[in-house]
């Protein structure tokens, strides 16, 4: 009894269980709404993750290989040798007054970059299944990182083009300053197509098998190893070539690197087409990305 009285007289009072406790902040993740294509602020916040994904893609690609990053140069180089034998020596394909090996490599370099970028980006979301289903981050980082890794390959392979230019004594003109712009436009196109394909590949795995076929078909539909015909082609062929932005981009890449007239008319159309492709690809990706974790 005395113990009970002493406890009641103690200045220490029991906590009031009726007082509300402070709650931790809650972050609500919602799917994008409206026409928001890219949340630039969010991508900037996760920029370190984007850099890590690019480095991971580059490292994994050449893991347990003897040549390592040498395959970046060897792939377009071997293609250049093959086309030089069949197109340059046997078929005598014109090369705008340039040595055919140099002409072909200058066209194969941007095409190989573009093909690698859209192929890897198209399969990137499915390949990142564990990462996507466990943590939240901007899903666009995945296909963008695949394209970024291809940019690293482009920079490395461009070194061989410089060596070939020195060997053949080809001096570039002031157009060379415009080359980064052309490379950026090709990157933008690859991002749009690769992003759209990555979203389609989640729902329809048939695209995994269609992408390599489309890449091979596109290489021959694009003047990477041959010149555009001097005679005016038919109307339907003109339409196909105009809607293929890589036609103008490869011609412009070759012209800026090796010196020559830049096709400003077709380049302007290609820029518009590339912008539309980028918008459509990113919009479709953002529209369906909230369902990736459930479908994948």
Largest sheet: none
Order of helices and strands: HHHHHHHHHHHHHH
Instruction: Please give the count of helices.
Output: 14
Mean pLDDT: 85
Whole-number count of domains: 1
Number of strands: 0
What is the 3D form?
globular
The first-to-last residue Cα distance is 68 Å
User: What's the Cα radius of gyration?
Assistant: 27 Å
Low-pLDDT residue intervals, each spanning 5 or more residues:
1-8
- Computed structural class: mainly alpha
Strand content: under 5%
Helix and strand arrangement:
Layout: H1 2-9, H2 40-45, H3 47-61, H4 70-90, H5 100-122, H6 124-127, H7 129-134, H8 141-167, H9 179-203, H10 207-221, H11 235-243, H12 245-258, H13 264-288, H14 292-295
Task: Give a quick summary of the entry.
The chain has 296 residues and is mostly helical. It has helices spanning 2-9, 40-45, 47-61, 70-90, 100-122, 124-127, 129-134, 141-167, 179-203, 207-221, 235-243, 245-258, 264-288, 292-295.
What does this 3D model show about the protein?
It is built from 14 helices and no strands. It is mainly α. It has one domain (51-282). Mean pLDDT is 85; it is low at 1-8. The chain starts with a helix and ends with a helix. Helix 5 runs antiparallel to helix 10 (207-221).
């Amino acid at each position: 009894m005395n113990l009970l009285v002493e406890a009641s007289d103690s200045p220490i009072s029991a906590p009031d269980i009726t007082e509300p406790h402070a709650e931790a902040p809650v972050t609500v993740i919602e799917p994008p709404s409206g026409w928001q294509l890219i949340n630039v602020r969010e991508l900037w916040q996760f920029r370190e993750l984007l850099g890590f994904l690019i480095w991971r893609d580059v490292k994994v690609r050449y893991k347990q290989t003897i040549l390592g990053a040498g395959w970046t140069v060897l792939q377009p180089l071997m293609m250049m040798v093959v086309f030089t034998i069949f197109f340059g020596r046997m078929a005598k394909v014109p090369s705008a007054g340039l040595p055919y090996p140099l002409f072909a490599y200058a066209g194969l370099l941007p095409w190989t970059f573009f093909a690698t970028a859209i192929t890897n980006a198209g399969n990137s979301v499915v390949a990142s299944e564990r990462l996507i289903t466990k943590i939240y981050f901007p899903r666009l980082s995945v296909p963008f990182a695949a394209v970024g890794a291809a940019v690293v390959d482009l920079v490395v392979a461009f070194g061989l083009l410089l060596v070939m230019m020195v060997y053949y004594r080809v001096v570039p003109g002031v157009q060379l300053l415009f080359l980064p712009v052309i490379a950026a436009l090709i990157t933008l196109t690859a991002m749009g197509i690769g992003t759209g394909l990555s979203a389609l590949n989640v729902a329809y795995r048939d695209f995994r098998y269609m992408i390599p076929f489309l890449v091979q078909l596109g290489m021959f539909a694009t003047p990477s190893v041959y010149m555009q015909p001097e005679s005016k082609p038919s109307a339907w062929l003109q339409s196909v070539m105009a809607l293929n932005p890589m036609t103008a981009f490869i011609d412009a890449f070759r012209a800026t690197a090796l010196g020559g007239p830049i096709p400003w008319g077709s380049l302007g159309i290609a820029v518009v087409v590339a912008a539309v492709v980028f918008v459509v690809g990113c919009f479709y990706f953002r529209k369906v990305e909230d369902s990736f974790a459930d479908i994948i």
